[in-house]
Amino acid sequence: MGDWQIIEGNVTAPRGFKAAGITAGLKPSGAPDLALIYSETEAIAAGVFTTSVVRAACVDYCRQRLQQKAYARAILCNAGQANAGTGDQGWQDALETAQLVAQHLNISPDAVLLASTGVIGQRMKMEAFRAGIPQLVASLSETGGDAASQAIITTDLVTKAIALETTIEGRPVRIGGIAKGSGMIHPNMATMLSFVTCDAAVSTHLWQEMLTRAANKSFNQITVDGDTSTNDSLIALANGQSRTSAITEMNADGEKLEAMLTEVCQYLAKAIARDGEGATCLIEVQVTGAPNDAAARQVAKTIVGSSLVKSAIFGRDPNWGRIAGAAGRAGVPFEQDHLRIKLGDFLMMDGGQPMPYDRQAASDYMRQIAQDSSFPEGGQRRDNPLIIAVDLGNGSGKGSAWGCDLSYDYVKINAEYTT
């Protein structure tokens, strides 16, 4: 833990932010499905979006808005329909939702950012939108973060939220975040949405740079199933209401702010991986000895994304050969005679040679991690990942990636998703 503390409130913990979440009738289940995050003052806005060439209307909308003006006041998110692959009418629907929210907030439509999640190919239910937005705006509250986090989820079993506080210039500075995601999760953004709020003052270019680096160390390092989505969006607002001096360069205050932003993103990213569809445990792959940090992250996410590795972990089979094989095909050069692999405390390979270990004890370790990862009373999984540590040899690069095991339930969930 860095120089900060966990506080209550998630996206409404930073000063000047309100949020709301309601049931507008967008989901057939009748669960909450429409969320709004609102800054009482103009906020610096930054975003990282899906790399897919098949994109939802909300992604193209946000990209255009942020290219024109890196400021915003509101983020509107719906769950139920992805509004991806919906053509010109889907684009017009996105524009109308922004205009409706702007009208009821009495702000410019250009100050509204959008996000959607749900079934690809389905337009948003505009009648429900038109009826729900006045109620949504009226529900905005400084304690509305939990309702918003509930309204953005789809197949998630739990909500994902956090808020941190540090001190800059003797004043408290806060960052809060919520996220959703459980399936269709893979590096270079996934079927995940995350919204981050901050009350620090920071320049537009630096805020975007910080968010991009944080995403590369968090959301771009998780995988559940190898599929990248059409709607992935990470949007961050910073409104300056902490009343600290503007951070315009990477000085000590800038480094502190970015470290806290990265911590928020990593917490939310790991929560998504832990909640992977059908998953029984969180996996953390730690790679050292790589030529550089980017190479280490590449090896780590190749290992954690391997279907064979994920299947072995679900079967509690300490098959380290699959880990070695995934490392070898990651596209990063290293000498196999230097390779070292540990599963928890069990050393399985060293100097490129197999090492004797207690196979049953290693399997029991995997089983215990899964048991500890079950949902306890209160509905949140414990943060107790299964650790795979891989050393490639003599480089200084290091990096981590997170994922989950691959179970029978994953197939069942996705076989029945639209039926």
Query: How far do the termini sit from each other?
Result: 43 Å
Give the helix/strand class: alpha+beta
Q: What kind of sheet is the major sheet?
A: 9 strands, mixed
Percentage of residues assigned to helices: 25-40%
Number of strands: 16
The CATH superfamily of the largest domain bears the name L-amino peptidase D-ALA esterase/amidase
Mean pLDDT: 90
| Number of structurally distinct domains | 2
Strand content range: 25-35%
Overall shape: it is: globular
Q: Which H/E pattern describes the elements?
A: EEEHEHEHHEEEHEEHEHHHEEEHEEH
- State the helix count: 11
Low-confidence stretches: 375-381
Architecture of the largest domain in CATH? 4-Layer Sandwich
CATH class bucket of the largest domain: Alpha Beta
- Here the CATH topology of the largest domain equals L-amino peptidase D-ALA esterase/amidase
Please give the radius of gyration in angstroms: 21 Å
Site (Involved in the stabilization of negative charge on the oxyanion by the formation of the oxyanion hole): 117-118
Active site: 191
InterPro entries: Arg_biosynth_ArgJ, ArgJ-like_dom_sf, ArgJ_beta_C
Main location: cytoplasm
Please describe what this structure looks like.
- It catalyses: N(2)-acetyl-L-ornithine + L-glutamate = N-acetyl-L-glutamate + L-ornithine; L-glutamate + acetyl-CoA = N-acetyl-L-glutamate + CoA + H(+).
- Substrate binds at residues 154, 180, 191, 277, 414, 419.
- With 419 residues, the protein is α+β, with helices and mostly antiparallel strands.
- The chain folds into 2 domains: 5-274, L-amino peptidase D-ALA esterase/amidase, CATH 3.60.70.12; 282-415, Ubiquitin-like (UB roll) (Roll).
- The chain has 11 helices and 16 strands.
- The strands form 2 sheets. Strands 1, 2, 3, 4, 5, 6, 7, 8 and 10 form a 9-stranded mixed β-sheet that branches.
- Helix 7 packs across helix 9.
